[in-house]
Amino acid sequence: MTFLAQLALFLSSYAPLFAVFALLDSFGSGWPTRAFIGLAILGPVLAVVVFLAANRLAPQTLSVRSAQARDGDALAYIATYLVPFAAITATTPRERAALGLFLLLIAVLYVRSELFYVNPLLALVGFRLFQVVTPGGASVVLLSRRRFLPPDVTLNARRLSDYVYWEEHE
Fold it and tell me: By the 8 A CB rule, do 5 and 43 touch?
């Protein structure tokens, strides 16, 4: 997954926060609110573009020895990052700069840590996270629409990064 694709998925994961910022005029009314409305719309659009591009990747066989649901990761993400931000209204230029800097720091950490799969919008459209152990003992993350992933199953998935796979819905 390219840096730009990861950045696009970061924007989509923060689209709900950007919408809240716009609704609350967190950075002031006028152009800041319009910019956050734009980001709230742009994020999901870019996510669709990224997954359409990923759909062009050749599927690979992924053998699953065991799997554990990791849906709580998206909830933890929301609780630890999005909820505290929603309560903030920066009124001074200094507060706005501090909030912007903190948002930038989270963006860098998100992209560098390849956490693009932890995304509340993906959960909203039905994707679930699974921690999968392959027969060789490797641990990977699988994005899938399945509600349950049985052990000792083989499936077709697209490799998004070294340890993240995406299974299209059946």
Answer: no
Q: How far apart are CA 37 and CA 79, in angstroms?
A: 22
CA proximity to 68, closest of 6, 128, 2: 128
Q: How many domains does the chain have?
A: 1
DSSP codes of every residue in 106-133: HHHHHHHTT-TT--HHHHHTT-EEEEEE
SS3 for 154? strand
User: What's the predicted TM-score (pTM) here?
Assistant: 0.74
The tens digit of pLDDT for each residue in 36-82 reads: 999 999 999 999 998 899 888 889 999 999 998 887 666 666 666 66
What's the domain range around 31? 3-166
